[in-house]
Amino acid sequence: LMLNSVLTCLFDSLSTMLRKNVEKRHLYDNLDLVMLTFDEICDDGIILETDPILITQRVRLHQDDIPLSDKTVSQVSNFEF
Q1: Whole-model pTM?
Q2: Based on the structure, what is the number of domains in the chain?
Q3: In a domain, 51, yes or no
Q4: Low-confidence ranges of the chain (pLDDT < 70)
Q5: Distance (Å, rounded) from C-alpha 51 to C-alpha 54?
Q6: CATH number of the domain within which 58 lies
Q7: How many helices (H) and strands (E) does the chain have?
């Protein structure tokens, strides 16, 4: 039951952030986003959050902290005003 909720949260969060393109190539291109999403969901095996909307907001906050010169091309192309 817990694994199901974590995986559902992970898929829903990534689906939102990657604009419904949850495919292997897009996941590899945005691996930093995937790892940050994992980090926001659980820490040291402890589930911290399972709300995909909240996870998406937190990951986007972390992305905004990175200077534009340090972002990858895929991050800049997904930049929203």
Answers
A1: 0.69
A2: 1
A3: yes
A4: 62-81
A5: 5
A6: 3.30.450.60
A7: 5, 2
